Amino acid sequence: MVSYKEIKASNALLNDATAPRAAVFFGGTSGIGKFTIKALVSTGASVKIYLVGRKSSEEGARAFIQKLHANNPKAEVVWNEGEVSLLAETKRLCEVIKSKESRVDLLFLTAGYAPFGTRKETAEGLEIVQGLEYYSRMLFVLHLLPLLRGGEASKVVSVSSLGISAATIELDELDLKKPGNFGGVKAQWQYGAMNTTTPEMLANENPDVTFIHSWPGPVNTGNVWRGTDPNSIMSWVVWLLLEPLIGLVGFSDEESGQRHLFQSTSAAFGGRGVPWKCKPGVNSLEKQANGLFLVNNKCDCTPNAKVMPLLREKAQGKIWDHTQEVIQPYL
């Protein structure tokens, strides 16, 4: 475990020279994304942040931006409104960012929630959480990779509820559309595996960009209600058991933000970023080199050595072929 003291000491080294110059936060209007933005701005560094969120989040986001600027006048936070579960909107937002920036140092992806209710689809025919947690994230990555390449410490951090993937997934039905095949836990395992195999492939093809798939552990992000149907049994379980339990055992907002800022900037993962003198992390190929890092809530690297070879052999190619079919029209 990386101690909280070590994490804060690393983050204290961030300044105009070491902090990300330009960062994109997809899902930063609440929860871990918001906590991490606050931690980054609080370093006092001169940073530019593109904050992407839905129209319904704009009022709260603008109030948040005002507080950030008051805390650090050198920080520029730019609001970008869009319905990010839609791939067409994701493409539009990426084009806006690419028109304004020639380089991005950090892409931080957190949009999503646990879909414990019934299956719901977007206007594009995708299950809404899969659109948020996988397809839109991968579209952001592919659009912004040219801006991420060549940076001194460029990183893509994707936060998922199940960062430690399982080998058992539905390869013949990756979108879980068949009746009775969709469920909250099953969907999260499915999306978690997809969010591991594709980034590993992209990390291998782009050795100058560090990829992190982060499992944050229990954190009260405020989204725990979002995936339940109103007045369902699951909504009562969330209210009576799950939310109080998360509040009891989970990280505070501040610590969660500091831990994810550490993952976003420290050379502990791949050797690129704020210098790290302790034991370096091991990537998904079990090497002390750049690549994809599976990072748990204690900021330890967990190569998942029993599962990753199976996913790499049996699932990676099929998932990538399917992903290309879905997102190709939006590239």
Summarize the structure.
With 331 residues, this protein is an alpha/beta fold. The protein is 42% helix and 11% strand. Strands 3-2-1-4-5-6-7 form a seven-stranded parallel β-sheet, with helices on both faces.
Whole-angstrom Rg: 19 Å
- Report mean pLDDT, rounded to a whole number: 89
Domain count, please report it: 1
CATH architecture level-2 label: 3-Layer(aba) Sandwich
Structural category is alpha/beta
Structure in words:
The structure is a single chain. With 331 residues, this protein is an alpha/beta fold. The protein has a single domain (4-330), classed as Rossmann fold, CATH 3.40.50. Helices cover 42% and strands 11% of the residues. It has helices at residues 4-11, 31-41, 58-71, 87-100, 128-148, 184-205, 233-249, 253-265, 308-327; strands spanning 22-26, 48-53, 76-81, 106-109, 155-159, 210-214, 292-295. Strands 3-2-1-4-5-6-7 form a seven-stranded parallel sheet, sandwiched between helices. β4, α5 (128-148) and β5 form a beta-alpha-beta unit. α1 (4-11) crosses α8, α2 (31-41) crosses α8 and α5 (128-148) runs parallel beside α6. The termini are far apart. Mean pLDDT is 89; it is low at 224-229 and 231-249.
Secondary structure layout plus pairing:
Layout: H1 4-11, E1 22-26, H2 31-41, E2 48-53, H3 58-71, E3 76-81, H4 87-100, E4 106-109, H5 128-148, E5 155-159, H6 184-205, E6 210-214, H7 233-249, H8 253-265, E7 292-295, H9 308-327
Parallel strand pairs: 1-2, 1-4, 2-3, 4-5, 5-6, 6-7
